[in-house]
Amino acid sequence: MATDTLDYAMTSFMNEDAVAVLAEVRWPGGEWSKSYGVRDLDSKEPARPDDRVPVASVTKTMTAVSVLKLVDEGLIGLEDPVNGMLEAFQAGLMPPGPITLRQLLSHTSGMPSYGEALYKGIDDLVPVSNQRLSLHRVMELTSTLPWEARMVGSFRYSDSNYAALGLILEKLRGKPFAEVLRNDVVEPLGLVKTTVDDPLVAAPDLVKGYVTIKGHREEAGVTQEQLGSPSHGVVSSVPDVNDFLAGLFTGRLISAGALAEMKRPVVGPYGLGLFEWSEDCTGAPRYFARGDFFDFQTVALSSADGRYQATMTVASPPAPTPFEDPDVERERALWSDQMRSALLETMDRLCQ
Q1: Model-level pTM?
Q2: Sign of torsion, CA 333 192 301 111?
Q3: For 288-319, how does the pLDDT look when each residue is reduced to its tens digit (9 = 90+)?
Q4: Of 3.40.710.10, 3.30.420.40, 3.30.450.20, 3.30.1280.10, which CATH number belongs to 4-350?
Q5: For a disulfide at 236, which of 105, 194, 230, 232, Cβ 3.0-4.6 Å?
Q6: What is the edge-to-edge ordering of all strands in the sheet holding 296-303?
């Protein structure tokens, strides 16, 4: 079967003690989904392919859609400087020069990421995770870090870029970010398992995530710090992520011109909330979004025409965070690469 490589990768992750692995692939005329593992290490309830999971930075792709809808409506331009729109850019957080909307979307503003100021060590992890952060507080934290002029125009991945975009959306829409995303993405596509600011603590179909802290297993999952974040706050499901990508690439969310801007790489393979990747059997590029937490990883791919999607989420084995074991980051990056490779090979086999 075309999905054999993907199924093998999923079982390999389970053999390395993943809590759960969920995947779904779609192609013209068919789809395949599978799950391994459990929702909860205590109850041992089996995981299902459509269970809810935190999708981390896949959120950024959704946020980028909302921002590009502003562009479609003529409320702001991609090359417009945003310094005057953001109170934080005029008090405390001082950009080294004009910063455009495109630079925020493409991580080329040079702005540091607030996480560098948020977490100082392992003892901060639990109290910080249980703390709800406003977007204004995110900007305050960012202002404690150096913003170097030499970094403007270079790729520097930063959650603070998307926090700033969230503030712009709130200002121009006059609504909280979570409501904007619901109006722009969730409701138009009928993403029934996708939420932005709902803690979902008791949701029976939520896969729980785990880390170890000083040798003790701790439940991580959906934290207060994540809720409502334009960079990493969405909880969704593998089928909903595929629905989102299909809706995006078939033109149901933004104009053809805005989608072309989103797909066009700015620095390296990264465009506006999307990575461009290898070509399919027709010679067209494919695009992907990815999200990583200490306890979850998601990789989601789509063909340029929206006819093929493939998404996988892994709930990682309970393991130390990078504060205790820096090598964990390298292992997580390896898993993410393996996920993407398995998804790409599956799409190659299905491509017509």
Answers
A1: 0.96
A2: negative
A3: 999 999 899 999 999 999 999 999 999 999 99
A4: 3.40.710.10
A5: 194
A6: 30-37, 20-27, 309-315, 296-303, 285-292, 275-279
